[in-house]
Structure formats: structure tokens, C-alpha cells
């Protein structure tokens, strides 16, 4: 398609769905949506990539954790969630989540011999605002026209578990299994991992919002942003053996 001033904009969207079973025997579905936008103007090309991951319990009735009653099943993803907006987490709970996520980020970055991230209150406020909006809208999406790097996650637990920050970070990092270090570059389903360990990113802000009923949205913003084409080899080194 054509944009303004003779710009040519091409967008490619790919979606990958994976299913697995957790330690409690519940079926978990992970949907990864990757959008690659290429803009050509005056012979010059620029490319931006956005990756969204939605993780949810699907199908059937989830086992009860109490042994006395069964939780209501989630059968068709986000459309069945009742979300009224606002975060049910206290300030101390948000801080705990952020501390867990930051600590895990830096532990994982150390594996790749890249410097630790510093907490940014500016990025934190930005990430928290977006997490709250996602919860209110009941919708997974990236912030448009975002100058910062961004990872977004959705989790639902029928037993109302609030997933800790290190678990969310591990979910992003687990994409390492799809990344080819012998052929560095952007690959579908790896953008969260590469942003977590991106060497040139130095600051992070983390936001988290939950409805108190098992639904959680988490957002991490990074500065400088990662995932630039042509820069993967220098910014995503192999982990230590």
C-alpha cells in the first residue's frame, strides 16, 4: 500500500499457536503474533517489528486447586474474560513484581555477558499506564508510535494466581529456543527474547495490572529500544556455556 508523500508501506503479519500442558495438567495455549512493517521512501527502507504474545488456559474445565470446588473454564480466550479495568494490586505488590522482573532480566542478561538494566521511573510510569489500559480494554496490543522497546504479556489463571515478575520474564526469554545464533537477525517468535537481552538497552520500566480474578497484563518498556535489523549479532550474544 502507499502512504503519504510517495511512501510505500508493506505490512506482513504472522501468527503462531502452540499448545502445551502445565504441571497441574491444564492445557495452555500460547499465541504469538508478529507484525513486520517496511516503509520505503526515496529509495530508503526502514523496518519495524512488533511481537505480541497471549498465553491462556483453554478448553475443558481446569482442575480445582482446593479439591472442593472447580474453577470456571476459559473456553475461548479473551472474549470470555470479565474485565472492569483498574489494577487490584497494591503498591507493595507492584513493587514486588517489578523487583522480581528486573532481577530476572539482569540474571538472564548476565548469561549473555551484557550489562544489567537500570530501573527508570519514567519508563515505569509509561509501562504501568499501558498495562492499565490493556486491562481496561481487555485487549493485547503494543503502544502505537512507541519510541521505546516494548514487551507485552497476557496471563490468565483460573485459580486466580498472580504470576510473579520472574515468571513473566522467563516467558519472554523462553523464545531463545527458536533463535538461531548462527544466523542472527529477527525471526518470528523471538522478539521478546532478543529485547530482554539486547545489549544496547540500558533502562527498563515495568508495569503490571490485574483484575483480581486471574487476568494479568504485564508491560516492559526499554531504552534505548532493541530489535533493529542489522544489529542483532552485536546485541544478542550467545549465552555462556
From TrEMBL:
<feature type="compositionally biased region" description="Basic and acidic residues">
    <location>
        <begin position="1"/>
        <end position="26"/>
    </location>
</feature>
<dbReference type="InterPro" id="IPR035940">
    <property type="entry name" value="CAP_sf"/>
</dbReference>
<dbReference type="InterPro" id="IPR014044">
    <property type="entry name" value="CAP_dom"/>
</dbReference>
<feature type="compositionally biased region" description="Basic and acidic residues">
    <location>
        <begin position="91"/>
        <end position="100"/>
    </location>
</feature>
<dbReference type="InterPro" id="IPR034113">
    <property type="entry name" value="SCP_GAPR1-like"/>
</dbReference>
<dbReference type="GO" id="GO:0005576">
    <property type="term" value="C:extracellular region"/>
</dbReference>
<protein>
    <recommendedName>
        <fullName>SCP domain-containing protein</fullName>
    </recommendedName>
</protein>
<dbReference type="InterPro" id="IPR018244">
    <property type="entry name" value="Allrgn_V5/Tpx1_CS"/>
</dbReference>
<dbReference type="InterPro" id="IPR001283">
    <property type="entry name" value="CRISP-related"/>
</dbReference>
<feature type="compositionally biased region" description="Low complexity">
    <location>
        <begin position="31"/>
        <end position="50"/>
    </location>
</feature>
<feature type="domain" description="SCP">
    <location>
        <begin position="96"/>
        <end position="230"/>
    </location>
</feature>
<feature type="compositionally biased region" description="Low complexity">
    <location>
        <begin position="77"/>
        <end position="90"/>
    </location>
</feature>
<feature type="region of interest" description="Disordered">
    <location>
        <begin position="1"/>
        <end position="100"/>
    </location>
</feature>
<dbReference type="Pfam" id="PF00188">
    <property type="entry name" value="CAP"/>
</dbReference>
Amino acid at each position: 500500500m502507499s502512504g503519504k508523500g510517495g511512501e510505500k508501506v508493506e505490512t506482513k503479519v504472522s501468527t503462531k499457536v502452540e499448545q502445551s500442558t502445565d504441571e497441574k495438567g491444564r492445557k495452555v495455549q500460547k499465541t504469538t503474533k508478529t507484525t513486520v512493517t517496511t516503509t520505503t521512501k526515496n529509495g530508503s527502507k526502514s523496518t519495524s517489528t512488533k511481537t505480541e504474545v497471549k498465553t491462556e488456559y483453554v478448553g475443558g474445565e481446569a482442575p480445582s486447586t482446593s479439591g472442593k470446588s472447580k474453577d470456571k473454564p476459559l473456553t475461548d480466550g479473551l472474549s470470555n474474560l470479565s474485565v472492569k479495568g483498574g489494577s487490584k494490586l497494591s503498591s507493595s505488590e507492584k513493587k514486588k513484581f517489578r523487583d522480581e522482573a528486573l532481577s530476572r532480566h539482569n540474571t538472564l542478561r548476565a548469561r549473555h555477558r551484557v550489562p544489567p538494566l537500570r530501573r527508570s521511573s519514567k519508563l515505569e510510569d509509561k509501562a504501568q499506564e499501558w498495562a492499565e489500559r490493556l486491562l481496561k480494554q481487555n485487549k493485547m496490543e503494543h503502544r502505537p508510535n512507541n519510541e521505546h522497546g516494548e514487551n507485552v504479556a497476557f496471563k490468565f489463571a483460573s485459580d486466580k494466581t498472580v504470576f510473579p515478575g520472574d515468571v513473566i520474564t522467563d516467558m519472554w526469554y523462553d523464545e531463545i529456543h527458536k533463535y538461531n545464533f548462527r544466523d542472527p537477525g529477527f525471526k518470528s517468535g523471538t522478539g521478546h527474547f532478543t529485547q530482554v537481552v539486547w545489549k544496547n538497552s540500558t533502562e527498563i520500566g515495568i508495569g503490571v495490572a490485574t483484575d483480581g480474578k486471574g487476568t494479568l497484563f504485564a508491560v516492559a518498556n526499554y531504552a534505548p529500544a532493541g530489535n533493529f535489523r542489522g544489529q542483532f549479532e552485536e546485541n544478542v550474544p550467545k549465552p555462556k556455556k
